[in-house]
Amino acid sequence: MENNRRKFLKNMGMGAVVASGIPAMAYCTDSKRTDNQHELCVSDAQSTLIVPKANGLPVTGTFLDEISHDIPHQNWGEKEWEQDFCYMKAMGIDTVILIRSGYRKFITYDSPYLLKKGCYKPSVDLLDMFLRLADKYGMKFYFGLYDSGHYWDTGDMSYEIEDNRFVIDEVWEKYGQHHKSFQGWYLSGEISRATKGAINAFRAMGQQCKDVSGGLPTFISPWIDGKKAVMAASGVLSKAESVSVQEHEREWGEIFDGIRGAVDACAFQDGHIDYDELDAFFEVNKKLADKYGLQCWTNAESFDRDMPIKFFPIKFDKLRLKLEAAKRAGYDKAITFEFSHFMSPQSAYRQAEHLYERYREYFDIKY
């Protein structure tokens, strides 16, 4: 009976799905469709778009969020992670960013310094795995610094300097010099406005990263203090008070002035402001970046901040509006938080595969 069932499913084009638990799509290496995919009903149906195709800035980078505190782990091993790198590559992603190498006591690699500080030993070396996969698939890898959690407890970023003095040195010695994909650093502290210790911390950590690695680039990804800038654990979706465009320009002008030379790019998170505010804030961001010699990236969030359940993959049109605004503003690059949960065909969220497909249709990406 079981053999007959398997034969039936195979003939129906569903054998790979049953065997792997992954949606009917190419499984690894070349990311091309096989002959029997999507044959249950229609084979090559696509949405009929009534907006111009590819009118936004394409997403070419993603964070890798393996150390998280507000989205669930998917508990992937190397097979699943390699499959995800295949999907990323097929979509045009050329840059992956470890969002943080550790958060409080959970860490991604076997750090002698952090283990002595009381952190938990990870079961596998995720940093080594990500670097090997980035090497294999020809991607740039940015290393995200350690987040002790002290900043979130105290509001003072100065605490992050000391631990990262050791983390930066040991990571460069153990990994950075041995992987061609190691191409930059992410200063993982997230701020929205003038924050105690932020300028000194970004400048100190960014300069050390550049000094130890021969000048590899650094970047930050702050958030705009807009009306949707509420705590993830909060039950509300918006707040009454939010930063004006003028306040944002003044405060970030001061911050950029204080960190230039130590930070090479800024990727503002785009999900905390409303869609009709995008152009005004993006124009200011680009003007400030140009003035202070930074590249202007966008962190195009691929999760939805407009829903009471946090967090699900974003509605495609919302992502499209943000990418189109980034292109109008002349941004240099679009990255996302983050592909594996919110855009990957093998995500735990079923909606993520559909977002991937809608993105491919819009940018006319073929397998």
In words, what does this structure look like?
The structure is a single chain. By secondary structure, the chain is an alpha/beta fold. The protein is 39% helix and 12% strand. The strands form 2 sheets. The protein has an 8-stranded parallel β-barrel with strand order 1-2-5-7-8-9-10-11. It has a 3-stranded mixed beta sheet with strand order 4-3-6. Helix 3 runs parallel beside helix 5 and helix 9 packs parallel to helix 10.
Features:
367 residues; alpha/beta; single chain; 8-stranded parallel beta barrel; globular; 12% strand
Summarize the structure.
The chain is 39% helix and 12% strand.
Distance between the termini: 36 Å
What is the approximate shape?
A: globular
Query: Which regions have little confidence, pLDDT < 50, spanning 5+ residues?
Result: 4-27, 29-35
**Largest sheet geometry:** 8 strands, parallel, barrel
Report the C-alpha radius of gyration, rounded. Answer: 21 Å
Structural class: alpha/beta
Strand content: 5-15%
Overall strand count: 11
Annotate the secondary structure layout:
Blueprint: H1 2-11, H2 15-20, E1 59-64, H3 78-91, E2 95-98, E3 102-103, E4 106-107, H4 112-116, H5 126-136, E5 140-144, E6 146-147, H6 150-154, H7 159-174, E7 182-186, H8 198-212, E8 218-220, H9 245-259, E9 265-269, H10 278-292, E10 295-299, H11 316-329, E11 333-336, H12 339-342, H13 350-363
Helix pairs in contact: 3-5, 7-8, 8-9, 9-10, 10-11
